Input
Amino acid sequence: MEYLEPEHLADKRQAARRTQRLAEDGEVVRGVITELTTSGTSYGGGVRMRVTIRYTASDGVEYTETVGKTFPLVDLPRRGAGVTVRLLPENPRDFEIEVDREGVPVDGEPIDTSTLVGELERLAVLRDSGHLSNEEFAWAKARLLGG
Output
């Protein structure tokens, strides 16, 4: 009798192999977020977003790609933010990104009020567009303000 692996387990294993390959063989380049679209909330209170980035691979070719990613409510990216792109040199469109954490307060450092205002405005937009409930907005606002 042949064992058939459930599809979701096969997908997870394939994703793990891809991540490992990117970590071992991937090239790291810098990029920038050019567009953001909110596509809903996820379980656990994160916000699902479509992130469009622009980066130049080591071959000198510039790429503009879009990827779906979930972000914590208190750490949402913004247009113009820098990203680290890890890509496969033989296929620069096969990549993972990590958004720079600029503007995220670190213990002991003063909070940039312009960043704080921007974060509060973004949360209000998410609430007003129906992607956050009033309770989720209040929770995220309290976390942002250190409560």
In short: The mean pLDDT is 79.
